[in-house]
Amino acid sequence: MSIAQNLTNILEQIQQLSQEAQRPEGAVSLLAVSKTKPISAIEEAIRAGQKAFGENYVQEGVEKVQHFANVQDLEWHFIGLLQSNKTRLVAEHFHWVQTLDRVKIAQRLNEQRPLSKGKLNVLIQINISDEASKSGISPTDMLPFAREIQQFPNLKLRGLMAIPKPESTPEAQKIALAQMQQLFLQLQEQFEGIDTLSMGMSDDMPTAIACGSTMVRIGTAIFGARS
Ligand SMILES: *Cc1c(COP(=O)(O)O)cnc(C)c1O
Question: What is the Cα–Cα distance from 170 to 210, expressed in whole angstroms?
Answer without folding.
Answer: 10
